[in-house]
Amino acid sequence: MAQVQVNNVTVSQGVRMLFSLMTPNESSFATVQEVPKYVNQATPYFSGLILLEIVLGWLKTDGPRIKINDFITSLSAGMMSRLPQLVMRSLELSAYIYVWNNFRLLELPWDSAWTWWLAFLGVDMGYYWFHRFAHELNILWAAHQVHHSSEYYNLSTALRQSVTQQFSSWAFYLPLALMVPPSVFAVHVQFNLLYQFWIHTELVKDLGPLEWILNTPSHHRVHHGRNPYCIDKNYAGILIIWDRMFGTFAPESDKVVYGLTHPISTFQIWTVEFLYYPYLWQRFWEAEGISNKLSVIFKGPGWTPGKPRLGDIADIPQITGEEMPHDPTWSPAMQAYVLVQFLLLLDVYNNLLKDQTILSEMTALLLTGYVLLSLTSLGFLIDQRANAAEMEMLRCVLIMALQQFGYIKPLVPLLAFPIEAFVLIAAVYWSLQCVNQRINRMKKQN
Ligand SMILES: [Zn+2]
Ligand SMILES: [Zn+2]
């Protein structure tokens, strides 16, 4: 019987990939070059599950809360975090291959199920320690806090990833490179990441005995909480056993309030991604003496002079249960506009990743610039900034130029004309908004 394929994998494989249910037989390869890009192949399955969660959210009165502003910000962070891949192989894999080539102690066979399972455990434990350090060292937290900055908890939160995290995570997998071939590692590092997608949901409550062994939505909800009992808990990737073994496990009890202890209250993607670095820099300069300066960098984000390494849990803001996520009102028409523009952008972005090997450097650079400008402009619109109209007008003009010269093509040719008309009307609308704002400003000055 013919098997249905979506994005080069059978539906069965696509679904099993997301739950780490692949077998050694179907996912063992001799060389790194043969290893499929599982994460890219999984995109349609991500989208499918996100849609399912949205539909179930509508149907259930106590279903998950999904807001367009937060949703787009999470997806924007995910998009931004994958852009460096256009110019380089992931640091995790490059560093791993380097150590394997130069320092390996033994060569486990790539086609043995034992090697496969050892890599499964090794990658998962490596992830546990990376994740724990990412919360316990302020300099690593600067990158990882991006993932925790949403005050909602749904599947889109899983995609809210940091651009800079990849510069530290690679180090934690290197012990494996002393014996496990890179092709086996390249499979498991992807499966580990993919597994962590589905656990970002409030729809799955309790999985019974599985809660003992696996990282589940319930355990990971605790990890995303800012209630005192949630802080620095449940670092697991796939197996929760590491938290149980190393003393960082906490079961879900009180209703979890999600997000950072001090919410950032913005949807501007550059702020979400990089805000913590200038803050860290400022704290570094303000700290007195070299010992305090080093502590600011290498102790926990909650540390202050005279406090324990990870800070004092009594210092974090109390949870009242009345906390409301940052969600300024904006018109339904503007929400629809931003959503449509974002979906159009998503199409360009997908094509860019898909065609990266056949695009010229200039074209890839131009489209990357367009994606970044778009994420910025849509973030300005969501944040309702004063200069949002000017930036969006410029962006619409740029889209028209890119369409004109064939750099942007719609998913379906039939949509070309309606999209062009939509962008033209948007450009006129934003121009009028700019004129209007200028007149108002002049009136005020007079
Ligand atoms: Zn975390
Ligand atoms: Zn998470």
Automatic annotation (TrEMBL):
UniProt keyword annotation of Methyltransferase present: no
EC code: 1.14.16.5
Signal sequence region: none
Domain Alkylglycerol monooxygenase C-terminal: 334-420
Pfam families, A to Z: AGMP_C, FA_hydroxylase
InterPro entries assigned to the protein according to its UniProt record, in alphabetical order: AGMP_C (IPR056853), Fatty_acid_hydroxylase (IPR006694), Sterol_desaturase/TMEM195 (IPR051689)
Compartment(s) of residence: Endoplasmic reticulum membrane
Entry's Gene Ontology cellular component terms: endoplasmic reticulum membrane
Membrane topology of the entry: Multi-pass membrane protein
Residue ranges constituting the Fatty acid hydroxylase domain according to the UniProt record: 117-248
Keyword Transmembrane attributed: yes
Any one GO BP annotation for this protein: lipid biosynthetic process
Top-level lineage group: Eukaryota
Cofactor: Fe cation
Sequence intervals crossing the membrane: 170-191, 334-352, 364-382, 411-432
Function description: Glyceryl-ether monooxygenase that cleaves the O-alkyl bond of ether lipids. Ether lipids are essential components of brain membranes.
Protein name: Alkylglycerol monooxygenase
Organism: Sinocyclocheilus grahami (Dianchi golden-line fish)
